[in-house]
Amino acid sequence: MTNKTKQELEDQIGSLYQASKDLVQDLSLETVLWRIVRLAQAQVEAEYAALAIRDDDGSVVSFIHTGMSEEEISLMPHPPEGKGLLGELQNKHETIRIPEILEDPRSVGFPNYHPKMTSMLGVPIISGEKILGQIYLTNKIEFAEFSADDERLMKTLAAYAAVAITNTQLYNHILERDNTLNQQYEDLTLINDLAQSVASSWDIKEIMSRTLKHVLEYLDIETGEIFLKDRGGKDLRLSMLRGDDFEAFYTKDVFRIGDGVVGKVAGHNKTLVVYNLDSDPRILRPAIAESGFTCQAVIPLQATREVVGVMTLSSKKERDYSARELDLLTTIGLWAGTAIQNALLHQQTKHVAVLEERERIGMDLHDGIIQSLYSIGLTLDYVKAILQEDHKESQEKLEFATGGINSTITDIRAYISDLRPRQMQENMTFSENLEILLKEFETNSKIPGSVKNELQVPLDTADPNTVTLFRIAQESLSNTARHSEATQTEVRLWDEDGKVYLKIMDNGKGFNVDKTEANLGHGLVNMQRRSQKAGGGIQIDSAPGKGTKVLTWVPKE
């Protein structure tokens, strides 16, 4: 074999150096592998060249070759499997350079229809102590074997190839990581948007509708449903449906716990995906598959480990749900389930409050207005009996009855005002709102009153604490109108030490606070709860014949 001159070697090394500089700047792995193979083939003038990239287990994950035609490749039963000489390169950090492949004891031969190959040069691509892959070169053109110069060139190229492959792998890893982070950011954005959306509503239908809208748009799915448990806890009833082909989904809108895919997910509290809707026996609505749907994901909606409902997502496009998507749907199921549970509890609380208020009104009507009307009725019966005998007493009794009727009308007005409390006007100051409230109080109760405003800075009428003060004023004035028999009421408002104070005083008959505390009326309890919830407090001072003072305060901020 003719050795190259020093100048030829220097020129070839220079050419290889320049080509390798371009190589390490390329960040596309597929392109890099092709360029390495073609560069190796051209540098040593080989008829065939190949490059194999292996994973940590030694399995070939990429195999790039040049020199063989597509027809030759198609005739072979399988690509190289990494045995024999190729396996030797993988297991040892050594170069293999031989004149005849089949004569080497490490060779295991070629598969059928494999092109004839004689000489071989194999160089491992090494990064540190790790073998990334190998460069294979066979059939040195016009020579019986590859030279020592060829081997040195390929070792140099293998070193550049290791840098280039490592760079592309690191770059691809960074891209994958970046894509993962972007996907996680989008997932978290969805959860955050959904949480804010559903947390701002107590309406169950609105919560379900918003949940389905967000999920269907984010995952590009055609139809979604939400089933909620009935109060008995044994049935799941279709409560919300968004998307296409409603008729198919309404063919069955109630499932027993454990029946079908919907009932099974509710029973086991685990997400389930069905990829063959047309043949899975758990699908109890064949019309869905007949409408073109191929895949359905079913997610439990749970709150405090209890399933409150089930969400289904049905797609006409064939798709695989990744582990990330299933985790995302499970998290959404927790959010939506908790929001629905909170809304249900809120409804129950309102229902209980309505029942308690009905009971209070009934008791107040029975103890107050009805008793007054009953007393008036007895008086009128008495007048009827003595009308002919004593005109003067009859006249007095009639005047007494008339006064009782007028008083009862006043009481009824107070009840109506209490049942339909006015709202603050945002275009007015808080003190102006108090004055309007007091005028209504005077009209209904016939008790004159006054407002004394000593605030240094006007209150924001939209602030929750301001609303609390207004509601307490309503409740206190309502109690005064109904129970106090007062002839004068005064409302005082001032701020001090970061707090806003409101005092309501009357000169009525008062009551024994110590005896009342054990069985407080709803009005007093409501005032206490409102002030405490706002971070403030309330003090009630009263005694029989001494009138009543209600002092409440809330934080200014």
Q: Could you name the CATH topology of the largest domain?
A: Beta-Lactamase
Compute the average pLDDT.
Answer: 80
CATH superfamily of the largest domain, by name, is: GAF domain
Which CATH class of the largest domain applies here? Alpha Beta
Strand order of the largest sheet: 8-7-6-11-10-9
Query: Could you name the ranges where pLDDT drops below 50 across 5 or more consecutive residues?
Result: none
What does this structure look like?
With 557 residues, the protein is an alpha+beta fold. The chain folds into three domains: 6-173, 2-Layer Sandwich (Beta-Lactamase); 198-341, 2-Layer Sandwich (Beta-Lactamase), CATH 3.30.450.40; 427-555, 2-Layer Sandwich (Heat Shock Protein 90). The protein contains 15 helices and 16 strands. The strands form three sheets. The protein has a six-stranded antiparallel β-sheet. The N and C termini lie far apart (95 Å).
Task: Note the main attributes of this structure.
alpha+beta, 16 strands, five-stranded antiparallel beta sheet, 557 residues, six-stranded antiparallel beta sheet, Beta-Lactamase, Heat Shock Protein 90, 51% helix
Secondary-structure blueprint:
Layout: H1 6-25, H2 29-44, E1 46-54, E2 60-66, H3 70-75, H4 84-91, E3 96-98, E4 120-127, E5 130-140, H5 148-199, H6 204-219, E6 223-229, E7 235-242, H7 246-249, E8 254-256, H8 260-268, E9 272-274, H9 286-290, E10 295-303, E11 306-315, H10 323-386, H11 391-419, H12 430-445, E12 449-454, H13 464-484, E13 489-496, E14 499-506, H14 513-517, H15 522-533, E15 537-542, E16 548-555
Parallel strand pairs: 12-13
Antiparallel strand pairs: 1-2, 1-5, 3-4, 4-5, 6-7, 6-11, 7-8, 9-10, 10-11, 13-14, 14-16, 15-16
Helix pairs in contact: 1-2, 1-5, 2-5, 5-6, 5-10, 6-10, 10-11, 11-12, 11-13, 12-13, 13-15
